[in-house]
Specification:
The chain is 40% helix and 21% strand. The protein is α/β, with parallel strands linked by helices. Bound molecules: nicotinamide-adenine-dinucleotide (NAD).
């Protein structure tokens, strides 16, 4: 059955109302799979950000006093409504991003809803610490909300990543000014309506659409914003930190990665090939946790490569609305050209394109690229050092544990890694040596929302998940009572 697509204009959502920009400026929203204009997006700026901050500041006075049970009920309702409207939201996410519809339906939207349900339950059962002193005193640790929090989001997992920040932030009684990525405004814009329907008071969540250089910078600089939760490129994070330093904002940054997959000779080869296919190309290779540097022990290198290439060639790239599509379109013409440039660089650096490397010929419109495997490069090459964020991976052989650990850590990134071996001692030894915020052994993309999530080195600042998010979105203080 053909999926019925619909266009949508995106306004700002401020103080519970959808509004246009003060100067009536807007820009085209392009579907990357068809290159068609699918709506107009209001182009905000410092004026709209200021309006949103004033609304958030005002709403904070009552929201900060709301009961935990009230906040939990609203969060639960937001999660329920996201699931009720899953089909509509998934379609909007796919039209904005170019990712396959099955992925939006099975991962993006349910995981977004899951964050609201998780934090509704988390705050309902959460306690606090108390430290008794022998002199006859008790120290109680208490948490208060911060105030207005700014959120700046990327385009790759728009609603999912936004919800992972928004749910704990609201749970702790903060109010929010958030900016979706310029390329992907639709699900965030609809979230405004859903929050209102769930009973969230006006002004608690405010959404301003527009560019990073205008709206993003205005959020980063605003003196009444207490903290910034940002996901995006490392270079953008640095610029946000510089802009936000004037009033010493608190930062939570989820940044880029160049994650290693380390495959030892005693792995389950069939399983590794299947998982590597996903960790390389799912979401067009644009998941920050994708493993883009694949290291394979020399004794199984040829066998792995042959199977991996053969499976990669079976991947169907094309219409994201078709159920059998594995890989959809890249987010924009600009990004598509950037990824193609990296493939050219790989050739210049002496790399061999084992498969892929070209635009998809069968597609007349849209930014479709073949999944690409490159060999013959070493760690000094630009293609191995820099994050490509597309369906492009490199494969390199290694001999020893020490050698592969040094390859894996030879980067300024440190987001995630995966290690494949049946030897549990080696698994733990290697995992412990890898400089990454999250290392998987014999699996990939398995997440428990209670555990810390974030990057080491230049892959991030701070950790999210469970209590780690609660700590970020609250002011923790001590009350010492002498009795
Ligand atoms: P980006 O940094 O270009 O943009 C992210 C957001 O920042 C957008 O909303 C953008 O408009 C805004 N922005 C841009 N310049 C700004 C500025 N000067 N001031 C304030 N805001 C600004 O990133 P992207 O291309 O949207 O996303 C891809 C990147 O995100 C990749 O590097 C990827 O690894 C990273 N990412 C990381 C994680 C993680 O969990 N660590 C998750 C997803 C994506």
């Amino acid at each position: 059955m053909a999926v019925k697509v619909k266009n949508m204009d995106c306004k700002h959502f401020i103080n519970g109302e959808y509004i246009s920009s003060v100067d009536n400026k807007s820009f085209d929203n392009i579907n990357p799979a068809t290159e068609e204009v699918i709506g107009q997006v209001e182009e905000g700026g410092a004026y709209e950000v200021d309006l949103a901050v004033k609304a958030a500041k005002n709403a904070f006075e009552t929201w900060k006093k709301s009961k935990v049970s009230e906040r939990a009920a609203i969060l639960r309702k937001i999660g329920d409504l996201l699931l009720e409207r899953k089909d509509e939201l998934a379609l909007l996410e796919t039209m904005d991003t170019g990712k396959p519809l099955w992925l939006s339906s099975n991962v993006d939207i349910p995981r977004a809803a899951g964050s609201f349900h998780f934090y509704a339950n988390f705050i309902s059962t959460m306690g606090t610490e108390a430290y008794p002193m022998e002199v006859g005193a008790m120290n109680f640790v208490v948490r208060r909300p911060l105030g207005v929090v700014g959120m700046i989001n990327p385009w790759n997992l728009p609603l999912l990543l936004l919800s992972a920040k928004l749910a704990p932030c609201l749970a702790m009684g903060n109010t929010v000014v958030l900016k979706p990525a310029r390329w992907t405004p639709m699900t965030a814009t609809l979230l405004g309506e859903i929050c209102k329907q769930a009973g969230l008071p006006d002004g608690v969540v405010n959404i301003v659409n527009g560019a990073g250089r205008t709206v993003g910078e205005a959020i980063a600089e605003h003196k009444d914003i207490r903290a910034i939760a940002f996901t995006g490129e490392t270079s953008t994070g640095k610029s946000i930190m510089r802009a936000g330093v004037s009033n010493l904002k608190r930062f939570s940054f989820e940044l880029g990665g160049k994650n290693p997959n380390i495959i030892f000779e005693d792995c389950d080869l069939e399983e590794v090939v299947e998982t590597t296919l996903r960790s390389s190309f799912i979401n067009q290779g644009a998941v920050c946790l994708c493993g883009s540097r694949i290291y394979v022990q020399r004794s199984i290198y040829d066998k792995f490569l042959e199977k991996f290439i053969s499976k990669t060639r079976e991947q169907i790239v094309g219409d994201p609305l078709e159920g059998n599509t594995n890989i959809g379109a890249l987010i924009s013409k600009q990004h598509y050209n950037r990824v193609l440039d990296y493939i050219e660089t790989a050739k210049k650096e002496g790399g061999t394109i084992e498969t892929g490397g070209n635009p998809v010929q069968s597609q007349e419109k849209g930014y479709f690229l073949e999944p690409t495997i490159i060999t013959g490069l070493d760690n000094s090459c630009q293609v191995i050092k820099e994050e490509i964020f597309g369906p492009v991976v490199t494969v390199q052989p290694f001999d020893t544990e020490e050698e592969v650990i040094s390859y894996a850590n030879d980067t300024h990134y440190g987001l995630s890694a995966s290690v494949w071996t049946k030897d549990s001692s080696r698994a733990f030894r290697v995992a412990h040596e890898i400089e990454a915020g999250l290392t998987w052994v014999n699996t990939w993309f398995l997440r428990d929302p209670r555990t810390p999530y974030g990057g080491e080195k230049q892959s991030g600042v701070g950790r999210q998940g469970g209590m780690f998010s609660i700590d970020f979105y609250s002011e923790v203080s001590t009350i010492c009572i002498k009795y």
